[in-house]
Amino acid sequence: MRLRFLVPLAGALACSTNPSVFPGGDFSGPSGLAIAPVGDRDFLFVANQGANELRAIILCNSAPGASTTCPSNQDGQFLPGPIRVFPASIIDVGERPLRLAGARLVDANSTLHGAVLVAGLDAVLRVVDAANLFAASENPENQGIAKPPTHDVTLPAAAVDVVATSVQGPTVSAVVATQAPPGGSAALTVVSVFLDPTTGLARAAATQQCTIDFVPTRLALIPGETVGAGDARPAHVYVADGTPVGTPGGVGDGAVEFSVPAIPAIAPGSPTTACTVFRRLPASDPADSPRRARALRSLALSPAAIDKAGDTPLPAGQFLIGVTAPDPALCAAGGVRACAPSIAGPGVVCADQGFLSCGGGRVVLLSNDPATGQSALLRAPASATGAPMQPLLPPTPAREVAFLGRPTCPTPPCTGVRIGFNTSVSPQVFHEAIVGLTSTEDGSLTFIDVQNLRFFDDTRDTVGVPVTPSFLAPVLSPAPSAGQAATQLNLAPPAAAPGTQIAGWFNAGVSRNATFQVVWHAALPGLDSVGGILSRSGTGPIQLTVPSKDLTPWITSPELQLGPGDFVRSLSFTTTAGCGDLVTTFSSPDIPIVAVLPHEIDLQAVPGFDPDPSCFASGNVGGTFEVHAGSTAAGGWAVVEDSNVLARLPHGGQFVLTGPRFDYPVDPDSTLGAANTFAFSFSITGPQPLVTGTAFIGANTAGFPTFDGRVVSSVRDLSSFGTPGFAGPILVYDSVRYPNDQIVFTAITGSNSVMRSIPAQLGVPNANPASFFMFY
């Protein structure tokens, strides 16, 4: 079928909804994107991993008013196949094509003759000749003109990523990263792409190769950078290091810059040697305590650009954006922790929210200077102490990154992104030298204000309203009886300490969207049905032996602290009991716990549960119990965020929650840069509830929410067809057809589509700033 080019409504912009059509056919899992030019049109190639093929979209690229052979009815349409109503399917591209790179070749007549490099799950780099495919599509009666992809480069192992220089010429250089084969090492391979003088088709040959001692995840080049006159190879290639459990400042931390000319030439019959000329760009910060390595799963280098006035050039490669990979060490970084001396006291319990997704999907910003060999994490904004900047986190974890930015433009200022259509009648255009982009797990394309080291925000950046976290006041359930005083949840009053000046101790850029429950005598998670063998000696405690369950994690957990003073309720007893003393009723009594061992819970006899020892004479009497938090020193209240128990809180105590910083507000306070700052605090006062399971919850939900206050500027399809989105690679497209605007293509893998957006046109009526390529 032909491409359905979806025209959005006026409101289909940042944080809004575009009309969509449910995708059909076999176009599934679009992954890699690449541009290959052919004369007066460019071809956007999309890797269709669901069918092991490529599809190509025609983009006319002539300047406005110039004569062209690319008619408007072809612009934005799929490259047609032999039957014109169906798109051409470029097959023989290997198993699951994942990564693409476009090569801007020029033939002997100085005509652009583009090609695409395809990397998939096999150890072969394939070359697709875009000019040949276009010629075949223009001659549907002679489809034999179309040649299959060439199999020119055999790789050491399956490719991780491939990138090609953006510089055009008769020969174009590319770099491929391959994973480590069994017993071997990952490698970098430099590839030369050229036109075969005999066939006229694009080919490739491996020219240089070396091994690396870490796990590569992505490659990036400095846009437009070359070695120098007469050598169009890139001077450097940057490799994201995704090695898990890394060393701060070493392997598994940040990215690595390699000198491309220094990669050894391939010598047939000789073993591949290690890469020797490299520089590591750590993504961790020496000022952090503890300093943790940050492995990366994606990265991008900034292009050459000009400032707002259009007269001060910024060199390419000055900034690096990286996306962090999950860190196993951060999966357990939350939970109860020691309170700061300034707030420590009786009944004060401090906990931390920890890192969402184990720290994965966060955005780090680095400065970079290849000439001097220097790089560093950017400093926290407005920080007089030079505190380390904490990674940013979009509303859902980041996947891939890119930059907007141009070295020239016909009508300065350049590099605009239009912000605030949903929050302001007059959306503003921000003309920054460069703008960061990140795709996210909910299918969004989100904009990063690199100059101010934060996300663009529809509210903060248009109507001047500062980011203000808040919460929805909870209700007590069940409500107290008539005439009975109610238990109260009270926000912590403002204090003089930094980060506590707002009631509830909310902080912009720290307090996040979450759902809380505060439950009295809650059933402990994982212990809501504990079964074992019952026994008793004389009038002593009743022993519940649980040979199949180790209770140590619940005993030692600082969040749960299972121990004496907690209680159980019986759920059932085995029918072999033969004893009237063991009868489970609807209103089981609270049975106090007097001791806990790894495989045993000792229970105190109470009215309604005081069985005679003779009840257990058979030796195989079993019972099943529900374990609850009691009114112990640990506390009778359980504080639950989403589905995680953060801490137990004594009645009358104060709960203090901290969290990692994920964004920077307009007016940063003196705590900026601290690894953890205050996120939420409250106390519970009044009479203790009379009913087990009494909880503070939302008025219409299971829990009461907190809000981070952000309206992060982004573009996505919020219709039912855009869910789940799960956005992937980003391609920033420049064309003389759009002299003042850059176009961004984003692969939306989760909804089988490719999103096209023009950030500078968001909110402009009838400008078609966002649309989607899908099958129907």
Kindly report how far apart the N and C termini lie. Answer: 7 Å
Helix percentage: under 10%
Name the structural class: mainly beta
Radius of gyration: 31 Å
The tally of helices reads 2
The proportion of strand residues reads 35-45%
- The total beta strand count reads 51
Spans of at least 5 consecutive residues with low confidence: 1-25
Q: Mean pLDDT, as a whole number?
A: 88
CA-based shape: elongated
Provide tags for this entry.
2% helix; elongated; mainly beta; 2 helices; 776 residues
Architecture overview:
- The protein has 776 residues and is mostly beta strands.
- Strands 31, 32, 34, 41, 42, 45 and 46 form a seven-stranded antiparallel β-sheet that branches. A six-stranded antiparallel beta barrel has the order 35-36-39-38-37-40. Strands 1-51-50-49-48 form a five-stranded antiparallel β-sheet, with no helix packed on it.
- A hairpin with a 6-residue loop joins strand 11 (186-195) and strand 12 (202-212).
- The longest helix is centred in the first third of the chain and has 9 residues, at 130-138.
- The chain is elongated.
- Mean pLDDT is 88; it is low at 1-25.
Give a short overview:
The chain has 776 residues and is mostly beta strands. It is built from two helices and 51 strands.
Describe the secondary structure blueprint for this structure.
Elements: E1 4-5, E2 30-38, E3 41-48, E4 53-60, E5 99-103, E6 115-119, E7 124-129, H1 130-138, E8 150-154, E9 159-164, E10 171-178, E11 186-195, E12 202-212, E13 216-220, E14 236-241, E15 255-259, E16 278-281, E17 296-301, E18 305-306, E19 313-314, E20 319-324, E21 335-336, E22 348-352, E23 363-369, E24 374-377, E25 398-404, E26 416-419, E27 428-431, E28 435-440, E29 445-449, E30 454-455, E31 470-471, E32 475-477, E33 488-491, E34 514-520, E35 530-536, E36 542-545, H2 552-556, E37 567-573, E38 591-597, E39 600-603, E40 622-628, E41 637-641, E42 644-649, E43 654-660, E44 676-685, E45 695-697, E46 704-707, E47 714-715, E48 727-733, E49 743-748, E50 753-757, E51 770-774
Parallel strand pairs: 22-43
Antiparallel strand pairs: 1-51, 2-3, 3-4, 5-6, 6-7, 7-8, 9-10, 10-11, 11-12, 13-14, 14-15, 15-16, 17-20, 18-19, 20-23, 21-22, 23-24, 25-28, 26-27, 28-29, 29-30, 29-47, 31-46, 32-45, 33-44, 34-41, 34-45, 34-46, 35-36, 35-40, 36-39, 37-38, 37-40, 38-39, 41-42, 43-44, 48-49, 49-50, 50-51
